[in-house]
Specification:
The protein is built from 1 helix and 5 strands, in the order E-E-E-H-E-E. It is mostly beta strands and 135 residues long. The protein has a single domain, classed as OB fold (Dihydrolipoamide Acetyltransferase, E2P) (Beta Barrel). The protein has a 5-stranded antiparallel beta sheet.
Length: 135
């Protein structure tokens, strides 16, 4: 049995290159790595390119989620949940880092998106809702 890759939909992967990107907070998934809680959040550019970032949920690591939430417009004294930031448009700074001999991309800065940079067309539901689990 054989397959023609031209006829198979999906499976194409384009890594988000280092630089500054306008993205929406696309999806999330809670998980566990080495018995430690994490949340993987995917950020999606308008052209469909996705960057997945892991956030550790330990007390000393929550500062990154705080930075992300503030960039998404959550107030510094507000209580929030991951669902509150889905669909929010922000700016991310992606860099390349080497860790244990392997080169990876990582977000090193989150910024709010200025109104002029936001997508013009808005609907009641974000464009990322597909009914499929992105993970």
């Amino acid at each position: 049995m054989g397959w023609n890759n031209k006829e198979i939909k999906g499976g194409d992967f384009v890594a988000m290159e280092p630089g500054i990107h306008s993205v929406s907070v696309w999806s999330h998934k809670f998980d566990e790595v080495n018995q430690k809680d994490i949340v993987r959040i995917q950020f999606r550019r308008l052209d469909g390119v996705i960057h997945s970032e892991t956030f550790w949920l330990g007390e000393n690591s929550l500062w990154r989620l705080k930075q992300l939430s503030i960039a998404c417009g959550i107030g510094i004294n507000e209580v929030w949940e991951i669902e509150d930031i889905l669909g929010k448009e922000i700016i991310i700074h992606v860099t390349k880092e080497e860790y244990q001999g392997k080169e990876n991309t990582k977000i090193n800065k989150f910024e709010p998106m200025k109104k002029a940079e936001r997508r013009e067309e808005k609907s009641d539901q974000p464009d990322f809702i597909t009914g499929q689990d992105p993970f």
